[in-house]
Amino acid sequence: MKQILDHPWDITETDALALQKRLSLKVIKQDHFLEINYVAGIDVAYSEYTSQLFAAVVVFNAKTLEVIESVVAEDAIHFPYIPGLFSFRELPPIIKALKLLKNTPDLIVCDGQGIAHPRRFGLASHLGVLFDVPTIGCGKTRLLGDYIEPGKMRGERSPLVDSDEEIGSVLRTQNHIKPIFVSIGHRISLTTACEWILKISPRYRLPETTRQADQLVNKALYVLNSKQKN
DNA sequence: GCGACAG
DNA sequence: ATCTTGTCGC
User: Site (Interaction with target DNA): which residue positions (predicted)?
Assistant: First the structure.
């Protein structure tokens, strides 16, 4: 798929912070798309000794949840893990993978936050702005914000709040199962984002998009590890 | 100064 | 992210 905006990735922490503040102005927090036929999921895994990263993208038919296409890309780690600057670590391999895609996703679900971020520019928003594609941030844990426990049933949610601003939803995707953290990435409203997450999470806590991408990326790691032993 | 802190 | 065993339940 096509990237409409780019910037250097080997930058200092200070420059990364400034870049986030500048690009965060471009985030669109309302529904801004026509039809969503293809939904994609992304996940990244790390190789212990080779300091390599693998990113997988799996594209689904949004209506039937059948897998349409999947790709994997590898890259070298060139940015440390710093909470709040996560995208500078994982986006390089993700961008490589997206460029291998033959189909163009209408919506991308990311492993991590969207605007539920100190500068309102988490991984999902960063990706959305660079490709000008609708994205949703879907995290297993919280980066920041306060919330009260949502109801115990699937579909119930409570607001995630930071300095009097609603930055996301704590959403229960299965009855009596620990909720997940959903936030706007780009070109989508919070309500629509939650509806989509529920739609693509028919059976487990995490969306099928994330689960399939996770399986694929770990398969790639397994292959790599096998080669290194021989 | 003391915690908190996406993956 | 990754390191790690068994175990409870459908």
Answer: 81
Does residue A192 belong to any structural domain of this protein?
yes
| Whether A103 CB is under 7 Å from strand C | no
Give residue A224's domain range. Answer: 28-229
Q: Say if residue A43 carries a ligand binding annotation.
A: yes
Alpha carbon separation from A23 to A17, A41, A107, A176, A189 (Å, rounded): 10, 23, 20, 38, 18
Counting residues of chain A whose pLDDT is more than 90, the rounded percentage is 93
- Cβ < 7 Å from nucleic strand B: A 43-44, 46, 81, 83-87, 111-113, 117, 122-124, 137, 139-144
* A194 CB neighbours strand C below 7 A: no
Establish if A154 belongs to a structural domain: yes
Any residues with CB less than 8 A from the CB of A177 and at least 6 apart, and which? Answer: A205
The CATH number of the domain where A107 resides is what? 3.30.2170.10
pLDDT tens column, A104-117: 999 999 999 999 99
Q: Does A102 reside within a domain?
A: yes
User: What is the count of structural domains for chain A?
Assistant: 1
